[in-house]
Structure formats: C-alpha cells, structure tokens
Amino acid sequence: MTTNNTTLPDIEQLTRLANQLFTALPCDGSLLNAGVHAASPQATTAAAESGKLTQLASLAERHIEPPVETAELNKLLANYGTVSRSSAPSNTLTTAPSFYFLDAAQQQQALSTVELTVKSASQTLSPQSAATADLDKVTGLSSLAGQHVELPAETLELHKLLASHATVNRSGIPSNPVAETAANPTFYFLDAQQHPHRDLNTLGLVSSHAAFDVHAVRRDFPILRERVNGQPLAWLDNAATTQKPQVVIDRISEFYSHENSNIHRAAHELAARATDAYEKARKTVANFLHASSPEEIVFVRGSTEAINLVAKSWGQQNIGKDDEIVITWLEHHANIVPWKQLCDVTGAVLRVAPVDDNGQVLLDEYTRLLNPRTKLVSFTQVSNALGTITPAQEMIELAHRVGAKVLLDAAQSVSHLSVDVQALNCDWLVFSGHKIFGPTGIGVLYGKAEILEATQPWQGGGNMIEDVTFERIIYQPAPARFEAGTGNIADAVGLGTALEYLQRIGVPNVARYEHELLGYAIEALRGINGLRLIGTAAEKTSVLSFVLKGHSTEDVGAALNKAGIAVRSGHHCAQPILRRFGLESTVRPSLAFYNTYEEIDRLVSVVRQVQAGQIGFY
Ligand code: PLP
C-alpha cells in the first residue's frame, strides 16, 4: 500500500498509468523516435486498453526527444514507484524509507511539478472539471507529458485519453478501465463464433446465448494474474472465498483516501460523505436482493454473524421449550451450531431433513417434519459441500403453511443465482460479502420489515439507541438497532461496489456461463478412473466435490497446489453431510464466472496424473 502526499499527484494512479504506458512501449524505447507511430508488438497483441495506451504513447512520443528527455521522464516516473514487469509490484515506498524525505532540490522539483499540473489543467480544462479530484490525478501524468505538449488541442486529446483510462470521481464510484468495461456489459460477450472452448459444441453444452468472454472478465481481477509455484494461478476455491475486481479494491482505497469518517452523528463534511456512501451501499444491497426497502438490510460481519443475530435475538425471544427448529443435512456449521445452542438454552428440539444419495433434500421427509410446533426453518439455498440447489421457494411455502418463519442461507447462492427475497418470501436471508467478490468482514442480514421492527436487538451500544438514561433505553428503528457500535463502513461500501459490478455483468449471464462450465467439468471428472463425485443433484451449481480412490484428499489438494491450482480439501465446515456419504473429507474445486475451460482441463490433467501415480504430492 502506498501513501499519498496530498500535495503530489496520486502515486498509485500515476504509477499504474506510467507502467501501463511503458509496458505498451518496446523495451528499447524505439517508439519514442519522433514520427514513429507503429505500435509495439506487446501493444498490438494486447487488449483494447493497450491500444489506447499505444495511442497515448504515440501522442507523447511526438513531443519527447530521445534520449535525454525520455530518460528524465522515466526517472521522474520511477520516483513515483515502479511495478516490475516480471514480478509482484515493487516500488520505492517499500524499498527505500528515504523516499519519504525530500532534499531541497527535490522539494523544488515537486513544487514545480504541481505548478505545471495546475497551469496545464487550467489552460486546457473547464473550471468545473478542474475542480474535481480526478483532475489532480489525471494531470499528475499529463503534467509530465505536458512539459512536452505544445498545442492545447493535443493536450486535450491527451487528457481525454488519460481520463478514459483512469479517473477517480470523488462523488461516486471510481471510474477506470475496469469500471468502464463493467459499465458496458457488451464488452463481456462474444459473438456466436467466438465461444471460449472449442469442444463444447461437440459435447452439446453450448447454449444459444452469446458466449461470455471470460478473458474480458478476468482482466478485472488483478490477482488472477498471479503465479503460484511457477504456474498461473487457477483459483478454484470460490466456495471458500472469491477474488476481488479492481473496482472494489479501488473503491475501498477511494473511501479511505477521500471519505473516511465515522458515520451518522458528526457535523462535518467527511461524516456526510461516509454516511452517504454507507447508506448508498445499503440501497444497492436492497436493490440486489429485490428487498422492498433499504431498512430491511442490516450490515453484519458475514453469514455466520447474521444467523447468530437471528438466533440470539428473534430466536431467544420467540422460541421456547418443545418448539421445533428444522434444518437440513446440507447445512454449513454456521447454520447448525447457533440453532443447536438455541435448543440447548431453550429446550427446543432440532429436526433435520434428510437428503437422497444425490444430495437432494427429500421433500416428503421435509414436509413430514413440519407441524404446528415448528417455529423456525433454516436452510441453505446452495450446499457449500455438494453444490445442491435446494427448492427454496417450495420449502419456504411449505414452512409458512404451518406458521413457521424461514431463514434462507444464501452464502453460496447469491454469486451464482438471481435472488429475489420478495418472490422467495423468506423471512430472513443472509450472505457474506467475501463470497460475492466483495471484502471480508462484511455481510448482510435481510429481514422483513415487520419482523425486524418486532425484534429486540441482540447487542447494545452506540449507534443503535435513540435515547439513553440510567432508567430506560429507547432503541432506534431497524436496521440501526441491529448495528451496535462502529461497523465495517469501508467494506460495506466495497460490497456495494461488488454488487454493482456483478449487476452490470448480469447474474443470469453468470449463471448461464457457470452452468456450461460446471457441465463440462463434471463430464471431464467423471471420465477419471477411481474418481467419485459427491453431490450429483440434478440442480446444482459451482461445487465439484470428489474423492479419488487410493489417494487422500490432502494429497490430491497438495498435488493441485503444486500445479498452481487452488482447491479446498477437508470437511468444508459441513461434517454432517460428508458423513452422510461416509466421508470425513473431499477435494472441492468450486467455480466462479472468471474460471475458464482451460483451468478445468488443467485440473483434470493433474488429477489424472495423481491417479496414474505420475506425480508426487509435496
Ligand atoms: N453458510 C454457508 C452455506 C457457507 O458456505 C458459509 C461459508 O462457507 C457460511 C454460511 C458462513 O459464511 P461466513 O464464514 O462468511 O460467515
């Protein structure tokens, strides 16, 4: 993480632009020869952004005379931090503490850079845009180039190019190449001839919809460019957590750079900005879930905390001795332990709906468990261990018929399926931000307004009260009454951005792509001798649990890790369902929309080699 000196152009922004610019140039700098406009080999093969950068380079090149000025420009940019092409970002901030201290000459240079920036900005841009924060950042680089730009028209062109490449707008979401592509969903789709996997037609797995351009999506996720054990990272551990797109990373950085404050109570500008951002995120979540109002959205730490909140507030207030709570065998420990604890405290009874050998809830058995003593049903929409999609709407309807309330655990579903709480008619729904391309430490409890209003809070403290005396306490209405203390403000804002990002791509598009990818993976894994797939429900998503005869799940996981492929091996915090299949652990690759057919091919190839005894494990 770099640190900004507020009087200088934004270092990270500048570094990114500079590195993009120089990556697009040939290594020998030959493009900088006046009059040479041909793109470098890297630039011509690179994606659309790279094309823009080449344009930018060619604009700059007309005004830079080699070699002295190029070297100087390079030096200046290097001062702001460089990212080495071959490895992880390295910059002077991490390697040289003396970077923080300027000598007199450097101070002068920094000041004149800022002066030039301001002059160049005021000459070429409207007063309104000159006032924005983006301008400071954009002009950071353009001022360097601006030393060589003579014509206002060309400066403007340069600004336009830079602005279209990366700007941060204080009042809203950062807009940058990622945001731009995400804002333009057609960017993510290929025409019929361009399906990302050659063999799918023959397998009959291709839908008639425009193919999803997974490589366009992958460019939004910087971590997917990592190498692990010398191999490109294949992140197939999405049921545990998902990776974050650049827009989310930028949004959190933007929050801490320009908006950070505690929320709701202060009289100052930053409190207003932080409060606006936080409440906007709440609206985004409400919109994403089709809730009837943002007041139905409570920010919590994650699914686990959300379930505990319901168990320890509504549960303790409404469940008594001999009442019954129904869950299913598919549940994650987070949807077992709080209910078992509640039963232990209240004398209520925990009932568990069984599943068949494919991992599907036996609906008849489930229905038989429901009766007037059933006060609560809590079940998962997608099993984290098997990938089974439960018939949630039907199960909710059946539970309501006996007067039970229903909590739906959507931790594994929201990133794969469209979820509409009003259509489902669940009473509560929970999910975690980190499983849906958002930050860790933030999650959501949706609750019907009338239920939240009728529920006493779980935790007490600041933020959740309207008035306090030593004699009595008046609570805020929901959702504030459930958000005691200072919450995870920045990550709530980051979660809002993640949901907006996913909405721009479109959850139905994601679902369609993942369905094809999962079908391909199931077929491929089924072809491996001694491999047993665990969880073969007709309706399933994302998860591919398996065991391999003669090999421990740890060994298979280790062999995959050696090949740069991240999967989970273990009990997946769902021991009862694995034991239902006679197992203590499985290997669990799990997919997201940024995974590719090539990654599945790599997975299958390594498992085949393990099975054939061709590779060691550690
Ligand atoms: N429910 C399900 C179905 C899960 O898969 C998980 C996590 O894997 C959880 C709940 C708990 O989520 P968290 O650890 O984010 O609170």
What does this structure look like?
There is one protein chain. It is built from 25 helices and 19 strands. The chain is α/β, with parallel strands linked by helices. The strands form 7 sheets. A 7-stranded mixed sheet has the order 6-12-11-10-9-7-8, sandwiched between helices. Residues 1-9, 21-99, 113-183 and 198-208 have low confidence and may be disordered. Bound molecules: pyridoxal-5'-phosphate.
Question: Any key phrases for this structure?
Answer:
single chain, 618 residues, alpha/beta, seven-stranded mixed beta sheet, two-stranded antiparallel sheet, 25 helices, 11% strand, globular, binds pyridoxal-5'-phosphate
Give a quick rundown of the structure.
The chain has 618 residues and is α/β, with parallel strands linked by helices. The chain is built from 25 helices and 19 strands.
List the topology elements:
Layout lengths: L10 H14 L16 H5 L2 H14 L6 H12 L12 H4 L8 H21 L2 H4 L2 H14 L5 H14 L11 H7 L5 E2 L9 H4 L7 E2 L1 H5 L8 E2 L2 E2 L1 E2 L10 H13 L10 H21 L7 E4 L2 H16 L5 E5 L8 H10 L2 E5 L9 H7 L4 E7 L11 H10 L3 E5 L11 H4 L3 E5 L10 E5 L1 H5 L11 E4 L4 E3 L13 H17 L1 H20 L4 E4 L10 E4 L4 H10 L2 E2 L1 E3 L4 H6 L5 E3 L8 H15 L7
Parallel strand pairs: 5-17, 7-8, 7-9, 9-10, 10-11
Antiparallel strand pairs: 1-2, 3-4, 6-12, 11-12, 13-14, 15-16, 18-19
Q: Which secondary-structure class do the elements indicate?
A: alpha/beta
Give every kind of bound small molecule, once each: pyridoxal-5'-phosphate
Label the overall shape: globular
Radius of gyration: 27 Å
Distance between the termini: 33 Å
List segments where confidence is low: pLDDT < 50 over at least 5 consecutive residues.
1-9, 21-99, 113-183, 198-208
* Strand arrangement across the biggest beta sheet: 6-12-11-10-9-7-8
Number of helix segments?
Answer: 25
Number of strands: 19
DSSP helix fraction:
40-55%
